[in-house]
Structure formats: structure tokens, C-alpha cells
Amino acid sequence: MKSPFSAKTVQPDISLSVCGYRKVLDIISSKWTALVIYAMEDGIIRYGEIRRRIEGISKKMLTQTLRQLERDGLVKRVITPSVPPIVEYSLTRLGESLLEPMRALNKWTKEHYSLVEQARAAYDQGNNEE
After folding, report:
1. Where is the HTH hxlR-type domain (predicted)?
2. Closest CA to 106 of 51, 61, 9, 41
3. Which of 10, 45, 49, 93 to pair with 59, CA 20 to 30 A apart?
4. Listed range (17-26, 40-49, 101-110) with the worst mean pLDDT
């Protein structure tokens, strides 16, 4: 039986244009996207509070990120007419469904990223000796 991981594959079996996983990574791979989703994990939150919670995010990046998440169906925006208008954000059910895999990735990072850093340092040290 031929292994699906065989190096002798004649036709490409991994496609950038078809891979659903890659498409999801395109949505959540921005550092700001992940942080904005984490900022909303406890429920409804206002724009200013999101901005205060996320170190280093500019108004422009926060606005772009929220618009993209809203477009992707992950975030709901509610505007309450007042002076000034009150704008609140929350995760949709779809957005909430991303929390579990993102938490798993966060857990993996906490448990293993130091090993990645060690591997990088060893690799860089080995390549600098040439």
C-alpha cells in the first residue's frame, strides 16, 4: 500500500487554491486578528476597550481588523444611536467556534515554543560556523 506521504507523488496533492486549512489560516494568521478575537472572548466590548487591551495596535489596524472579521462573519458590530454613537463588538457563534482551536494553539505555544527558540538558536549557531 502506497503511503500518502510518499515523496514520489506524480501529481501535486497539496494545493494553495483548494486547501481549506490555508484559507482559514489566511483569516486568523494576522497577529492582530488573533489578539482582537482574544479581546472579545468574554463577550460584548467597545472599540476603545479593545484598543486599550491590545498593546501596540493602531486605530487604523484595529478598524481594518474588525471590518475584516465582520466581513468573515466572525464578529458582530452593533451601533446604538447616541451622541457620540455607542459601537459594541462581539464574537458571533462562528467566531466563538474559533476560540477552542485558538486556545489549543496558545496552549501548544506555551508548552513548546521554548523548544522552537532553542532549535532556532542551535540552527543559527551551526550555520554561523561555516
Report:
1. 19-117
2. 41
3. 93
4. 17-26
Asked whether the bond before 84 is cis by omega within 30 degrees of 0, the reply is yes
CA distances from 21 to 28, 50, 130 (A): 11, 27, 38
d(CA 111, CA 117): 12
Instruction: Check: pTM over 0.85? Answer yes or no.
Output: no
- Show the domains of the chain with their CATH numbers: 20-97 (1.10.10.10)
Contacts of 92 (CB under 8 A, 6+ apart): 73, 74, 75, 76
Q: Which residues contact 49 (CB under 8 A, 6 or more apart)?
A: 39
Chain centroid, CA 70 distance in Å: 14
Cell of 111: 508548552
Rounded Cα–Cα distance for residues 67 and 75 (Å) = 8
